[in-house]
Amino acid sequence: MVESHMKTSSKQQTTMTSDIASELAVMVLPSGKVVSLKKLHHLEAKEPTFDKSFKNEVQILTNIRHRNIVKLYKFCLHNTCMFLVYEYMERGSLFCALRFDTEDVELGWTQRVKIVKAITHAISYLHHDCNLPIVHRDISSNYILLNFKLEAFVSTLALQDYYI
């Protein structure tokens, strides 16, 4: 059912998540809204601690509210499908914007400073303003996403150790 609405993910989105446990795709909802879909592999689901781990991740992500952190919209946990549905970032990862020569992404120094400020505000929020401090564990250009206005958002896809 969900696969019928999926589009092929872009090079940037594929680069962003190359881990074995999950993959990221772009999905168009029946309403026309475009979202990012983190599909968790079934091998991971067979681990005894997976259900608890998944529920912990969802609980933490649903409580994160910051302008510069990618939003988690929905989730699905079922024997045959496990998904996290996130806000879609049109410009993909900062890694791709810096690394690949793309005509549509031009990052001057003013824009780069805005990106750094947005990232630091998001990290400060995770460390100081959440009920329990959260450690991201993989702040890299692969986990910094850009929207169509080139505003930066920290992706929570890499959260591994939730509490300090």
UniProtKB/TrEMBL annotation:
Keyword terms, alphabetized: ATP-binding, Kinase, Nucleotide-binding, Serine/threonine-protein kinase, Transferase
PROSITE patterns: PROTEIN_KINASE_DOM
Broadest EC class assigned to this enzyme: transferase
EC nos: 2.7.11.1
Catalytic reaction(s) noted: L-seryl-[protein] + ATP = O-phospho-L-seryl-[protein] + ADP + H(+); L-threonyl-[protein] + ATP = O-phospho-L-threonyl-[protein] + ADP + H(+)
GO MF terms, alphabetically ordered: ATP binding; protein serine/threonine kinase activity
Superkingdom: Eukaryota
Domain called Protein kinase: residue spans: 1-164
Alphabetized Pfam families for the sequence: Pkinase
UniProt protein name: non-specific serine/threonine protein kinase
Lineage, opening ranks: Eukaryota, Viridiplantae, Streptophyta, Embryophyta, Tracheophyta
